[in-house]
Design a protein that fits this description.
The complex is a heterodimer of chains A (about 475) and B (about 500).
Chain A: H1 12-23, H2 28-34, E1 38-40, H3 67-76, E2 83-87, H4 90-95, E3 117-118, H5 123-128, H6 131-144, E4 150-155, H7 157-161, H8 166-177, E5 180-184, H9 194-208, E6 213-214, E7 223-229, H10 235-245, E8 249-255, H11 260-264, E9 271-274, H12 277-291, E10 295-297, H13 303-315, H14 319-347, E11 351-356, H15 360-363, H16 365-370, E12 374-380, H17 385-391, E13 400-403, H18 407-417, E14 421-424, H19 426-434, E15 439-441, H20 453-468
Parallel strand pairs in A: 2-3, 2-4, 4-5, 7-8, 7-9, 9-10, 11-12, 11-14, 12-13, 14-15
Antiparallel strand pairs in A: 1-13
Helix pairs in contact in A: 1-18, 3-9, 6-8, 9-12, 10-20, 13-14, 14-20
Chain B: H1 3-6, E1 9-10, H2 16-25, H3 29-37, E2 42-43, H4 50-59, E3 67-69, H5 72-86, E4 93-94, H6 99-104, H7 107-121, E5 128-130, H8 132-137, H9 141-150, E6 162-163, H10 172-188, E7 201-204, H11 211-224, E8 228-230, H12 255-260, E9 266-269, H13 276-285, E10 289-292, H14 298-313, H15 319-339, E11 343-347, H16 350-363, E12 366-372, H17 377-387, E13 397-400, H18 404-413, E14 418-421, H19 426-432, E15 436-438, H20 456-478
Parallel strand pairs in B: 3-4, 3-5, 5-6, 7-8, 7-9, 9-10, 11-12, 11-14, 12-13, 14-15
Classes of the chains: A alpha/beta (about 475), B alpha/beta (about 500).
Chain lengths: ~475, ~500
């Protein structure tokens, strides 16, 4: 991969000074803890020097969530035909209900369950334990929603603290109801971020679901699974058709608009294609070890990355697929050119800073670059070392890399680098908009989308243009 | 074939007939009964947890930085919820307790958290409240925050009121109540001066996601010439302007005013159920008169509020408010025909429900299904008494400790014209093919509704406009050609 051209006004020294000056405002201990998480990018280094996956420094405004959020919001929630029980007090379920935009097909309450199921723990449940309530709850849920294909139990903080045994309850109820009942010990206090929730969820899918089902139809040479796409704003529905157009059969999707039995039969595919590496690499590795299924990371943001990815996918198949890949690329080239012709003249030379979850700060860079936008800073809420190693080559030398950046730090960085756009989450959105800086909410596509695939790029380009070039920004400074 | 292989099942597809059967079945009386029989499962609750309410209060004082003692994830959820509803920043810090905190207690997290929060964000006050985790392990906030000061993590004189807000008790309105009482206790300590009276009114808006309502109270008080202090005033905090500069503390009740509130001439709460313990405490500690008023939805409840204010401050009702009242009544008589006799379903917090029901009864509409996700028999009685004041309350039902999946059953078996509630009710509304009128918290799928007041006479006109015009829209959108008319 070609190294990025340096960005005007950005040097390693300047970036390091900015970091030092920002840290200087913190108490010594906090500054010492935060320092390893901030750095100037070295694209040629084999490992990114920025440290990650460490505890949040108490008292700073971190944007991180918890293990439960990773389990319910990311991995389990999007499986459409299961009932996902938020086991514990009412809040966690309410806040995570419908707020990640993982769209799903089906009839709500009949064949799909985009709802909030909770045991709404009361004090007595804390005192006496919630196992019996959970048993009863599962029976009630199964009776009222008979077409569910299984249930997941996602434990909230108190469940783990009082020592309830959801695993035993799940086992018992699985027999009694003759349905999949999967426990997931994803209490929010576990680990340091959402990330552990993904891992725990993957482990419970490994232990309880994968390998338990098989497809009726014969396995074919072009069977693949789409791993780590959660159908935010319809992303899966934009990505899947491309794979099908090049001749692959997408047998299951993890987990956006996912169906649990198909997920359980994934071990028969020929290749796993992984989008969100952070949340699902564990499962790809398991399937590789146990069933010898190779896996490939791909990126469907923006035409450059789509083409790169399609060709890489084609390489793993035969001539037929490779020919199809070229056909598809050729077919969409003019469509994509139309998009860039329209938007690039207004966006060329702009800069953006990104801070999102576990893959977008690196995956979307190509799409910005397709529009002529350079990325001056990127970082993650809950990434690990391997994510940063994958990010460094995508960024120009000296650009800012920040892990679990606090609002205090990010504000300071934005103030100094003055990007034309910040792409981050809901909690940051209005902070920057008040300061008159265009913003797109990149966890949820700001209620737009899809952003994946060819279809998504059109929408992405429109949205970025709309954000940066909205005339409303001209009104911010009053004439008096 | 081995046993393990045999255990592998084929991927199944649910037969279309079976889907059709269940689709119809969930709309039946039989299903409704089964649905109402459940005791353990809660589906689509219409309430959130205590700390969310605590954060609202903690945000409402000038320079106050809400501090969540407990898990990082909770803090993220509360902040996101406020940001989604208000489309505003929602600053709050957290001491990010993890496994070791669960084992050793959260004192060290609190120390470090307070130190960092104070150094970085320079607050005038740090209200602290808990999530489930420290509540389950029994962290002692009194001792912890005292120790934090003794050991120099934060200045001795920094106010650090705290509230225990376990999520496994009550709901967001109770967290609101607990945190407000604690803040008032802290800031008024030693401020009471015998015989001194500021001449001001203390007004507590209660858990109200509508910043327009808060501004409307202030406008009314200004029109009446009553000096006031709004306690936990989030109107500017959660409705700040965009002028090119982000301010961490935009507005809020001034600390001096909050401290002086104990010497106020009178204290009123606009929401009974979200200020129970606060008002009890104020009753015993504050000078001046105290009153709990009904949320002023519709004309009668606004009348009640104005009469009370007039009485407390010996001020006449200004001509302008009289004119507003007349305009509201005019609007209501003009448009009553569009709502008269229509049945409504309502879900929300107790005080909101009482207010909305009062307004509907005034319009001659019928608050047919009234559902409160977490409440008490006492509330049920009060609501029944309100229904009993009108013939339009006849046959209406109150459901406490029921959720929006119960509401769905009610809507499909005993249909109504529309449902009033927060965004969460949109699923039930869609299934019942009726409009949802978004009043309450959170409203995360429409813009600006939180800025449009629904209290007072003007609020009554807003609500009426929202309701009546929607039904007219529906008529225009759905009627056959021969019934499509110029006038409605």
């Amino acid at each position: 991969m070609a190294e990025r051209k340096p960005i005007k006004g950005i040097t390693t020294e300047k970036t390091e000074n900015l970091i030092a000056e920002t840290l200087a405002a913190m108490p010594e201990k906090a500054a010492k803890k935060r320092a390893p998480h901030l750095g100037a990018n070295e694209p040629t280094s084999s490992t990114c020097a920025v440290k990650s996956n460490k505890k949040v420094v108490p008292g700073v405004m971190s944007q991180r969530g918890c293990a439960y959020a990773g389990a319910k919001g990311v991995v389990w929630g999007p499986i459409r035909d299961m009932i996902h029980v938020s086991h514990g007090p009412v809040g966690c379920g309410v806040y995570s209900w419908g707020t990640r935009r993982n769209l799903m097909q089906g009839i709500p309450g009949v064949t799909s369950f985009p709802m909030d199921f909770t045991s709404d723990f009361q004090e007595r449940d804390i005192v006496y334990g919630g196992d019996l309530k959970l048993e009863k709850l599962l029976k009630e849920a199964d009776e009222l929603f008979p077409l569910n294909k299984g249930m997941s139990i996602l434990s909230e903080c108190p469940v783990g603290l009082i020592g309830d045994d959801i695993n035993a309850v799940a086992k018992k109820m699985e027999n009694e109801l003759d349905k999949l009942v999967v426990p997931c010990n994803c209490e929010g206090f576990r680990g340091v971020s959402q990330s552990l929730g993904h891992h725990i969820s993957n482990d419970s899918i490994r232990d309880h679901i994968i390998g338990k089902f098989k497809f009726k139809e014969e396995a074919g040479p072009y069977d693949v699974a789409l791993i780590g796409d959660y159908n935010i704003g319809g992303d899966v529905w934009a990505a899947k058709p491309i794979l099908e157009e090049i001749g692959l059969n997408v047998k299951s999707v993890w987990t956006g608009d996912g169906e649990v039995e198909k997920i359980g039969a994934t071990h028969s595919v020929k290749l796993n294609l992984i989008h969100c590496y952070r949340s699902m690499n564990y499962m790809c590795k398991v399937m590789e070890e146990k069933w010898d299924i190779p896996w490939l990371e791909y990126n469907f943001f923006g035409p450059t990355k789509i083409e790169e990815s399609l060709r890489a996918i084609g390489e793993l198949f035969d001539d037929k697929i490779r020919k199809n890949v070229e056909k598809v690329i050729k077919k969409y080239k003019p469509v994509m050119k139309e998009v860039t012709d329209e938007y690039k003249p207004r966006l060329e030379g702009k800069t953006a800073m990104l801070f999102v979850g576990g893959l977008r700060p690196r995956h979307t860079i190509g799409a910005y670059e397709d529009l002529g936008i350079q990325i001056t800073g990127a970082g993650y809420e809950f990434a690990h070392q391997d994510d940063y190693d994958r990010t460094a080559p995508e960024m120009a030398k000296g650009t800012l890399i920040y892990d679990d950046v606090s609002e205090f730090e990010l504000e300071r960085f934005v103030e100094e680098l003055k990007p034309d756009l910040v792409g981050s989450g809901i909690k940051e959105k209005y902070v920057f908009q008040k300061a008159g800086i265009p913003f797109r909410q990149m966890h949820s596509w700001d209620y737009s989308g899809p952003y994946h695939g060819y279809e998504g790029f059109k929408i992405f380009a429109r949205d970025i243009d709309m954000a940066i070039n909205s005339p409303t920004w001209d009104l911010v400074k009053s004439p008096f | 074939m081995s046993a393990a292989e045999a255990a592998v099942k084929f991927v199944t597809e649910t037969p279309v007939e079976e889907i059709e059967r269940v689709k119809e079945w969930i709309n039946t009386e039989e299903y409704k009964e089964k649905n109402f029989e459940r005791t353990a499962l809660v589906v689509n609750p219409a309430h959130a947890c205590q700390p969310l309410g605590a954060q609202m209060v903690a945000t409402g004082f000038e320079g106050a930085l809400p501090f969540i003692h407990g898990s990082q994830g909770c803090a993220s959820y509360f902040r996101s919820t406020f940001s989604r509803h208000y489309r505003e920043p929602a600053a709050a810090t957290c001491d990010a307790m993890t496994e070791d905190g669960a084992v050793f207690g959260g004192q060290n997290n609190l120390f470090e958290g307070l130190q960092n929060a104070y150094a970085l964000y320079k607050p005038k006050m740090i209200p602290i409240f808990t999530t489930c985790m420290p509540e389950v392990i029994g962290d002692d906030l009194t001792a912890f925050s005292k120790n934090a000061k003794l050991q120099g993590y934060i200045p001795e004189d920094l106010p650090t009121p705290y509230a225990n807000t376990p999520s496994f008790n009550g709901s967001h309105i109770h967290g609101y109540d607990a945190m407000l009482r604690s803040i008032l206790q802290t800031v008024t300590e030693g401020q009471k001066v015998e015989g001194k009276c500021t001449g001001k009114l203390n007004i507590i808006p209660g858990f109200d996601g509508n910043v327009g309502n808060l501004r409307e109270y202030k406008r009314i008080l200004e029109l009446m010439g009553i000096p006031y202090t709004m306690l936990a005033d989030v109107s500017d905090v959660f409705d700040s302007g965009c002028d090119g500069e982000y301010k961490l503390y935009p507005g809020g009740t001034k600390m001096e005013d909050a401290a002086e509130s104990i010497n106020g001439k009178a204290t009123i709460s606009m929401q009974k159920y979200s200020s129970v313990t606060t008002m009890k405490w104020i009753e015993s500690e504050y000078d001046g008169e105290k009153a709990i008023l009904p949320l002023p939805f519709g004309v009668k409840k606004t009348d009640e509020m104005l009469l009370k204010l007039s009485e407390l401050f010996d001020k006449p009702i200004p001509e302008e408010l009289k004119a507003e009242r007349a305009r509201a009544v005019d609007a209501m008589t003009d448009a009553q025909q569009y709502l008269h006799g229509l049945k409504f379903a309502i879900a929300g917090d107790p005080d909101y429900l009482l207010g909305i029901v009062s307004f509907l009864l005034e319009m001659g509409a019928r608050p047919w299904h009234i559902l409160c996700s977490r409440s008490t028999k006492k509330f049920q009685k009060e609501m029944q008494a309100l229904l009993d004041t009108s013939v339009f309350g006849e046959g209406c039902s109150i459901y406490i400790n029921k959720d929006l999946w119960h509401m769905r059953s009610l809507l499909v078996t005993d249909p109504v014209a529309g449902i009033i509630g927060d965004t969460h009710a949109k699923w039930a509304a869609r299934d019942a093919k009726i409009p949802l009128f978004r009043i309450g918290f959170p409203i995360i799928d429409r813009v600006n509704l939180h800025r449009t007041p629904v209290v007072g006479y003007n609020g009554a006109i807003s609500m009426l406009t929202m309701l009546a015009n929607k039904f007219l829209d529906i008529k225009d959108e759905t009627c056959e050609d021969q019934w499509f008319e110029m006038m409605r």
